[in-house]
Amino acid sequence: MPQNNELNNMPRHVGIIMDGNGRWAKKRSLPRIAGHREGAKTVRRVVKTSGEVGIEVLTLYAFSTENWKRPKEEVSFLMNLLIEYLFKELDELIEENVKLRAIGDLTGLPLDVQDYLQNSIRKTTNNTGLILNLALNYGGRDELMRAIKSIYKDIESGTVLFDHLSADLVDTYLDTASLPDPDLIIRTSGEIRLSNFLLWQGAYSELWFTETLWPDFTKEEYLNALKEYSKRSRRFGKV
Ligand code: FPP
What we know:
Strand order of the largest sheet: 3-4-2-1-5-6
CATH topology: Undecaprenyl pyrophosphate synthetase
Number of helices: 7
Bound molecules: farnesyl diphosphate
CATH class: Alpha Beta
Shape: globular
Structural class: alpha/beta
Helix content: 40-55%
Order of helices and strands: EHHEHEHEHHEEH
Number of domains: 1
Radius of gyration: 18 Å
Strand content: 5-15%
CATH superfamily: Decaprenyl diphosphate synthase-like
């Protein structure tokens, strides 16, 4: 296992597609929700480790714009699990200097989730450590569509000049405004695709895939992913 001091060249921003909760449960003949509950324990581990090794931003894909198509009971379980996670972990997040943030169309979340989330975000607003960025009702295309509509409105009202449109300006309209782009995107459970996660921001991200199902993703494997990232040479299109 790599020691923290071996972890040079850390990513500033890590994004994780937490996949495989359902399969974890199925393997044990448990209901899918049992996999999500176990997955929440992995969230706890990964957040703690990210803070320990000095990651600046951790974005977790917790609920996608497509996840509404799941059975109603599973959707409401996931929403409640989020509230439960915040309820149980908030004190510790505050103690660990974690600053909570969220991306996605938050207005589409149930009102109690919106309230709980905004309250939790407020309570961590002065923290200066790891930014824990939860992607909720998030889809990269939806985020871009919302950005395009806002830009269009601002051009129409004269706040933005068409000739001043640039990639940097687009950045400021995204939910991730002011955050660095993800350096590393991890996906668990053997699926090798991005599934609408950070499409614009991930243009130059290093990708790391593992067969491990999310509930089984250990601190050791996470540290190994970070170590492997630290050895990669990133050229951003240059030679
Ligand atoms: C994908 O596994 C997982 C999700 C859609 C939900 C992610 C939620 C958690 C990890 C739990 C709670 C999160 C927080 C932030 C407290 P899947 O259900 O698609 O798995 P499968 O592909 O094996 O069916």
